[in-house]
């Protein structure tokens, strides 16, 4: 039990500055109630108790995506410049370390090959109390915010999260690279899931690249889906010949579900041949269509009545 009672009064405060989507993760709470946050290309430091703006740091040319107080000195004092160090990063990969009390930049790091090495090494140089996975995911999120998808994928592969890397690549429209990564890093089941998502994307109305989707389905061994897609594209000749080859070599069995599609393909192909004047071929495939081609077969086999001359 406490020897006395403390009454807390909580009041909401609104910070100044209109933020955008890039600034949503650019905030950090420092010691002694100091808050730093990104506002477009500016870094704002305020006192959370009085809501007074202490500094507005201007050096970035692009939107700020991350801010972080230095942790080597746990007692931040507004009168001690040594204790008030702050790092910020923008969407272009530029990192600035600030002397907050003086309001000046101590150093600048522009994104280049060193930055890639720095991010990769952070996984091994993290504090003991953090897990490698959580720390790496935070690095990944930062790289994605900076538009560095390639490097985010490298970090995910380092912790055996290639499946997540493939999803990130697909989210950012890198479908070919996601398929390549899936084939070299994932097991067959996970790889198939990645390729099926690619097929759904290719068959969507916005993309409509079903011809390319057919090649992906063939690589997966989804022969029934290939026949179904060919039929939906009204490629009746290709669909019928593909079904013939699959039945001949046992690529798929004739079940209740497959038989319905097969007879529909044969019937449509027979009608196509009839319209082109290939009666013999139309009769052949109409007979294979079973009930679906019965009416067409009767029409083809019944002789046409000659008009009677008066």
UniProtKB/TrEMBL annotation:
SUPFAM superfamilies (alphabetical): WD40 repeat-like (SSF50978)
UniProt name for this protein: cDNA FLJ57220, moderately similar to Bromodomain and WD repeat domain-containing protein 2
Domain WDR11 TPR positions: 153-250
InterPro entries membership: TPR_WDR11, WD40/YVTN_repeat-like_dom_sf, WD40_repeat_dom_sf, WDR11
Domain of life assignment: Eukaryota
Species annotation: Homo sapiens
Pfam families xrefs: TPR_WDR11
């Amino acid at each position: 039990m406490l020897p006395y009672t403390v009454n807390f009064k909580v009041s909401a405060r609104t910070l100044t500055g209109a933020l955008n989507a890039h600034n949503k993760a650019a905030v950090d709470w420092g010691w002694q109630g100091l808050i730093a946050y990104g506002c477009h290309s500016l870094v704002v430091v305020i006192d959370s108790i009085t809501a007074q703006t202490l500094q507005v740091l201007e050096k970035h040319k692009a939107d700020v995506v991350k801010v972080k107080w230095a942790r080597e000195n746990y007692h931040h004092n507004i009168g001690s410049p040594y204790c008030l160090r702050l790092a910020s990063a923008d969407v272009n990969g530029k990192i600035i370390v600030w002397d907050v009390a003086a309001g000046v930049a101590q150093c600048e790091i522009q994104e280049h090959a060193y930055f890639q090495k720095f991010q990769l090494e952070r996984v091994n140089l993290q504090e003991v109390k953090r897990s490698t996975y959580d720390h790496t995911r935070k690095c990944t999120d930062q790289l994605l915010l900076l538009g560095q998808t390639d490097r985010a994928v490298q970090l995910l592969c380092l912790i055996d999260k290639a499946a997540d890397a493939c999803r990130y690549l697909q989210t950012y429209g890198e479908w070919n690279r996601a398929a390549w990564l899936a084939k070299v890093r994932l097991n067959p089941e996970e790889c198939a899931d990645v390729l099926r998502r690619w097929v759904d994307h290719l068959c969507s109305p916005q993309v409509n690249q079903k011809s390319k989707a057919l090649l992906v389905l063939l690589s997966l061994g989804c022969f029934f889906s290939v026949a179904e897609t060919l039929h939906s594209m009204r490629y009746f000749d290709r669909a019928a010949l593909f079904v013939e080859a699959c039945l001949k070599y046992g690529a798929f069995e004739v079940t209740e579900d497959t038989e319905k599609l097969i007879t529909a393909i044969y019937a449509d192909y027979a009608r196509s041949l009839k319209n082109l004047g290939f009666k013999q071929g139309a009769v052949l495939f109409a007979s294979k269509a079973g009930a679906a081609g019965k009416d067409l077969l009767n029409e083809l086999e019944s002789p046409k009545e000659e008009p009677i001359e008066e």
